[in-house]
Amino acid sequence: MSKYTEDDLREELKTKEYEYGFYTDIESETFPVGLNEDIVRAISKKKEEPEWMTEWRLEAFKVWKEMEEPDWANVNYQKPDFQAISYYSAPNSKPKYDSLDEVDPELLATFEKLGISIDEQKKLANVAMDVVVDSVSVATTFKKTLGEKGIIFMSISEAIKEHPELVRKHLGTVVPTKDNFYAALNSAVFSDGSFCYIPKGVRCPMELSTYFRINQAGTGQFERTLVVADEGSYVSYLEGCTAPSRDENQLHAAVVELIALDDAEIKYSTVQNWYPGNAEGKGGVFNFVTKRGLCEKNAKISWTQVETGSAVTWKYPSCVLKGDNSVGEFYSIAVTNNYQQADTGTKMIHLGKNTKSTIISKGISAGKSQNSYRGLVQVSSRAENARNFSQCDSLLMGNECGAHTFPYIEAKNKSAMIEHEATTSKIGEDQIFYCNQRGIDTEKAIALIVNGFSKEVLNKLPMEFAVEAQKLLEISLEGSVG
Amino acid sequence: MDLKEKLVSSFLAFENTIDVDSPVHDIRTEAIKTFETTGFPSKKDEAWKYTSLKSILKEDYSVFPKQQNALDYKEIQKYFIHDIDTYKIIFIDGKYSSHLSHVTHDGIDVCLMSSALNKPKYRPVIENYFNKIAPKESLTSLNTAFSNEGAYIHIPKNKLVEKPIQIIHFSTGNEAALMLQPRNLIVVDENSHVQIIERHQSLTENPVFTNSVTEIYGNKRAIVDYYKIQNDNKNASLIDNTYVDQKEQSHCLVHTFSFGGKITRNNLNFYQNGERIDSTMKGITIIGDKQHVDHNTLVHHIEPNCESHQDYKGIFSDNAIGVFNGKVVVNKEAQKTNAFQANNNILLSDKATINTKPQLEIFADDVKCSHGCTIGQLDDSALFYMKQRGIPEKEARALLMFAFSNNVLDSVKIPELKQRITKLIANKLGVNIGFDL
Questions:
Q1: Which of A152, A430, B180, B189 shows a CA-CA span of 20 to 30 A to A14?
Q2: Nearest residue on chain A to B375, judged by CA atoms?
Q3: CB contact at 8 A, A446 and A480
């Protein structure tokens, strides 16, 4: 057997094509490029939204016009021209199916290629999916089962029509429209997304899931997710993203809001493998996402993310620990390769008493990529006995990549206990030698080490997703993971 | 007229009082231009996010002290490390005080910046080293523009300087408000060793604003041991910009003890231009009231096989604000770097604040870099244990805090200085024990 070294791995990584790079030709209806008040109105009208929603969008658009694109992140990219993007793209004949047989076979084939065949998911994984292709939800499964429990799980545009009181009450409460540049843009033009409401005391019997995919060329994907867990309820929510390979950069600016009322628990898992661009750093998705959760008393929000795609990632899933005894968690694996750049991390805002937060972040950089962790832990002066533990580990493969850590820690209460540690290392020659000695070849050894390095986070993913996440790690670091 | 305008407009007058033909003239002129465009840093600058200079800049400072003031040695003896023989470079209100100082040209140069800038004898050193590593940053440029006085220390090859050197800046309070801009240059050649203690002290409560720049060059195998004592009174503010350039196998250690002052900002920067370099920076900060101490450190690992160690401890009570912003950059070429950084803090009051931001920027893969940062309180069970054994609460707390900061003191190599700092800490913690129980 030929010797497999890190160099071979690096070579393979370079030449590995994006496996999910295909383009499905579904007739879609796309708006003219550009953004102005009329487009915002048109989107709203297209979606048959009530007056208050249109106003809300216009308000956000007004705010957005005044804002400047942030440039503090440790990433370099050609700023997208916001007037050269089409802000709406929907598969033409919006299907409403009772069974999957009626769905456009081509669309189903797309999912097949993604390895998320709905049938299979339905049967094997017991996952209810709200599939979003280019922002419009096309298939919602398991709606009936959920309906019996009183759980509302539908696309946000339907929710605006069917449950306006719930949406109106919660939309924009955690991520206000003027929060940041991309959140404002999203608020103005979001085309679809998911809405989920778990009633009091209900434990959602299955994992809820959405799959996002950017399909049409030159379209931005602006989805909006709102999850409300009422008192004492529990929900686990999964989100996965892919995009076909394209030479131009696609823009993705999503907003996710989580609201966990008293004693509720939300577990939000993301597997993201948007098209990262080719080996020369051409193309790829710009991923500018605002995710934030609000915890009331005794509530818990847990973010788990596996980030392997996107040319540029700018994403900070955060927890506002408002209620006493609330808990925030953040587990992340970010893998960057070739020319990918990731600036990701979390914010833990401790406001209530006895609040706890845990941050585990693992960064793996290879090729010529740059991987940054940027986090904030803030303890307000009233947050008695706040506790935080943060750990950021970076693994470097090759000497052309970079790993960076920017943790911000702000404590204003004397009873706060905050710990932060960060390490940077490479796969040790001695570790590989140890494995070789025991008859494990180098490829397997690297796989073992990378797996071990990310295990802490992978363990936090729901079963069905953990398998997929491992598959993704395989794709991103093909050859290294066995 | 705000301070910036005042400084810019008084630049010409300043230039005329000293030699316009000196080679430094061009450097000064360029520096004032840089300052004119950048101005003072504001909270919008990422590096100044947690420290605002507003409250200092509003005073009407006298920029050039006019008269020569004298001080009686007895009055100020307590500010010296007086129980050992040392070289001394003493400034009173920015002017050199010859009768308090003890300088030398015997084999080594321990003297004044003003004479080094003007005498042809020193020209080669000035041309080689002056303003070579100080970046074009606003406050440093401001200092460069007005650079005229300060300490000049040049240790030639193979010299072990037997006595430590003390640099002390006194301000008498004869001016209602005083701004000082000392400029120090320290060049240590191959195989030489020097120990330096620096202190800024104002004798009244009149506001003093010191913007100091120190350039330190440690050549091959040189050892530079630098101690900064910052225990000024409540209206004195200090911005200390220190730049250290190290060549191969040199060791540089900077200890910063911050126990007082209104706003203290330490910009401490290390550049490792050679292999097998060791850089150490340590600090103890114990403050209360409305004091504000900001440590902003940078270690730039440029060449392979180097090490850096950072260890900063902070204890904050009352309304004090502590800031730590430590940055480690490892270049692509700097393989086998070991860089460690630790920042531990204790908060004693709910009104005190700690903002800390330890940063790692790593471009090389074969490195060991870590940083750790904690914020916490004293261990209740340890306190209880001591109280059980008859140690009063106050003393028990002080002992714990002393133990907390002790490993910074461990590397202080001048025993008398260590004793002095131990006393200062006891003082600061309000107890009367020697800690050598």
A1: A430
A2: A418
A3: yes
